[in-house]
Design a protein that fits this description.
- The chain is α/β, with parallel strands linked by helices.
- It is 25% helix and 25% strand.
- The protein is built from 9 helices and 11 strands.
- It has helices at 10-17, 20-24, 32-36, 56-63, 76-84, 123-133, 147-150, 195-204, 219-224, and strands at 46-50, 68-73, 91-95, 108-114, 134-145, 158-159, 165-167, 177-183, 185-192, 208-213, 237-243.
- The longest helix is centred in the middle third of the chain and has 11 residues, at 123-133.
- The structure holds S-adenosylmethionine.
- S-adenosylmethionine is lined by residues 3, 7, 21, 51-54, 56, 73-75, 78, 97-99, 114-116, 119-120.
């Protein structure tokens, strides 16, 4: 598997490390209020974070009472920074690609992934492995760049001659696959897929859709970050939560329809 490890590119990492989310963590993350709406109570939960980056979520999960957190990431630079900020034996960081990582079956209560899955070419394969590693009743909660955002590739606002943002062009929407963009460096590889694919792949893996979010800035945040105002015009992120069903308990409770009179007694 020849996945790109762009976060270990020194120029990319230098740029990424300067972002407010890298320096200051979840409280300044645009989509964090919406992401929290996907989360169950974390007390005593076993949590897997796919593409854990600098480890902010791993530490937050432990602060909320998670029993243990495993963070997986391909980037040694990201994990070195995560380890430097973590002093907690219940958090383990693994350096591995998400394509190769094979979690044990039914071993996590919660699997999260924040802004990493648009780097993965084979999303269905990953979703099937996530579904298998969830406990019954467990949740998969993740964010990706919104397909409106990734559709065209090197997307940007269409400007008027005076620089005003006229509109956000969306094109090649159903044309799924690789997109190369400039973000700190040239040729950052991401994968575009439709909302339909993001959602139906979860359903095809046997999960039940629990929530969808296309966040915009909360009013209070807009006062502090006026630059977030235009995110209302086209959502930058798509957030999804889906649950592994529990075994059908009705089987334990006997037939839903009463047996006909004279029939042998069942398990009523
Ligand atoms: C935008 S960062 C997000 C980090 C963190 N989840 C957060 O929200 O702050 C994306 C992360 O995904 C990781 N990543 C990208 N492709 C990966 C792959 N194929 N396998 C493992 N990690 C990958 C990157 O190294 C990076 O740390």
């Amino acid at each position: 598997m020849n996945q790109q490890n762009i976060y270990d590119d020194p120029d990319f990492f230098a740029g990424y490390a300067q972002l407010p989310r890298s320096r200051r963590g979840l409280d300044v993350v645009f989509e964090w209020p919406a992401f929290q709406r996907l989360l169950p109570a974390l007390h005593d939960k076993r949590v897997l974070d796919l593409g854990c980056g600098l480890g902010y979520f791993a530490r937050e999960a432990r602060a909320r009472g998670a029993r243990e957190v495993i963070g997986v990431d391909l980037s040694g630079r990201m994990l070195d920074a995560a380890r430097a900020q973590t002093d907690d034996p219940a958090i383990t960081y693994l350096r591995q690609s998400l394509e190769e990582f094979e979690p044990s079956a039914a071993s996590f209560d919660l699997v999260v992934s924040s802004l990493a899955l648009h780097y993965i070419a084979d999303y269905p394969r990953l979703v099937h492995r996530v579904a298998a590693c969830l406990m019954p009743g467990g949740r998969f909660a993740f964010s990706v760049e919104h397909p409106i955002f990734t559709a065209r590739g090197a997307a940007n606002w269409h400007p008027a001659p005076d620089g005003t943002r006229l509109h956000w062009p969306v094109d090649r929407y159903r044309d799924e696959g690789e997109r190369r963009t400039h973000w700190f460096v040239d040729d950052v590889v991401k994968y575009h897929r439709t909302v339909e694919t993001y959602v139906n792949t979860l359903l095809d893996a046997g999960l039940i859709l629990a929530r969808i979010e296309e966040p915009e800035a909360e009013p209070a945040a807009l006062a502090e970050h006026p630059e977030w105002h235009d995110e209302h015009r086209r959502p930058p992120f798509l957030l999804l939560a889906a649950d592994r069903p529990r075994p059908d308990r009705r089987e334990d409770q006997g037939p839903a329809v009463k047996p006909a009179r004279g029939a042998p007694p069942g398990r009523e």
